[in-house]
Amino acid sequence: MKLRILGARAHNLKNIDVELPRRKLVVVTGLSGSGKSSLAFDTLFAEGQRRYMETFSSYARQFLGTMERPDVDRIEGLSPVVAIEQKTTNRNPRSTVGTVTEVYDFLRLLYARTATAYSLATGEEMVSYTDDAILERVVQDFDGQRIALLAPVV
Question: Could you say which architecture CATH assigns to the domain 1-83?
Fold first, then answer.
């Protein structure tokens, strides 16, 4: 499926139809005033934001206000959108797309919760044990022996 924009008329756009591939890097270039920002921000981002707001309950939407539908006949195949303007106020050279959009912390949490950890020393998958499982394993493997339990002071 492709992203199809039909009859876009925002600002400098003159009833244009555009078809863009999905899951590809798409670059929009052109002369100043040719409608690049009108297509990217005022049409695609505005419609993506409007559709997102429609998913909220009517109670929540009353506090957000209404979002105008962009001046376009139809948009097909639009995925959720995030927009980052070039003239952002955050001038930190260490900023990334993840930090600017504030999605970085959520991704870090997602990866930490769903990832499989492997030992750097052996390459084996690491497992976690409950307190009861540790006790059972110690009794099973070291029954009748003296052992020392060591743990860092935190």
Answer: 3-Layer(aba) Sandwich (3.40)
